[in-house]
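User: I would dearly like some help making sense of a protein record. I have put the entry right below:
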Amino acid sequence: MASLRCFLRSGKNAVSAVLRREFHRTPPAAVQVTVRDALNQAMDEELERDERVFLLGEEVAQYDGAYKISRGLWKKYGDKRIIDTPITEMGFAGIAVGAAMAGLRPICEFMTFNFSMQAIDQVINSAAKTYYMSAGLQPIPIVFRGPNGASAGVAAQHSQCFAAWYSHCPGLKVVSPWSAEDAKGLLKSAIRDDNPVVFLENELMYGVPFEMSEEAQSKDFIIPIGKAKIERQGNHVTLVSHSRMVSLCLDAAAVLAKEGIECEVINMRTIRPLDAEAIETSIMKTNHLITVEGGWPQFGVGAEILGRIMEGPAFNYLDAPAVRVTGVDIPMPYAKILEDNSIPQIKDIIFSVKKTLNV
């Protein structure tokens, strides 16, 4: 009997020890993932999940992609799922749109969105308008993705931001991620969407590492299209931006915080549909608005945001005129010193904040 009690006690102690270990177990640490690898993960997971998904574009297969976004995918999925195309954007974009009409879910990579102008008829007239013109009977589940906006030292024909261009067109969804989690979660949502999605990446962000949460490492992780994210809380001024400009806004906010100015930084993540509610809610708290973008000022993303705020309930909460920080209204110069003065810098954001707050 004593030996039985001893056995039961030892078993109870063992169970207690296991429970204590489980209770006190340190949660898995977030890992550092580059935007490049996050995009690769998203495509890999969706290619594996849905056999209708395939990738096509210039050098996406055997060369692993011009920016190595598709690294390893051709070896894993083969020629039928990862397809190298000739240098003809109108041709392979048209093939992709036709494939989407036939029930597949293509990912169409442009080596740069500047080259998507070669395929503008396919993107707008064929992809964007068909779902509507078919009264909803013909979905177009296609993603057009690739680097957008200014890189470094590539001059005017490789530096244009198309966020405003494509956001102007009904029928398209336009996504512009910043972080690795943005890139992965939004690309997976874009691939699963029945609408054509223009997915605007940034070449200078590809190699930037971000902390990726345990949740984001899951194959089920998605970010809904159309929802902005507050990257930094603040109560003096609202900074609204997308893509690489979010980094500059956060850097500017860190500098201004040392002077007692707290900026609320909003990462738009999606340009169309635009999360105006998130911006309005922030303005009602901070009473000031500054938009920051790398694109040109005329008819730009910031212009649309300011127009929405002017027409909406948040206008009455502004204590000063809303301000835009944008690229300069010229084709991008090649010389580095001119290039630096053609796109927003941290000092430009700080200057605009202080001017808006009159400090």
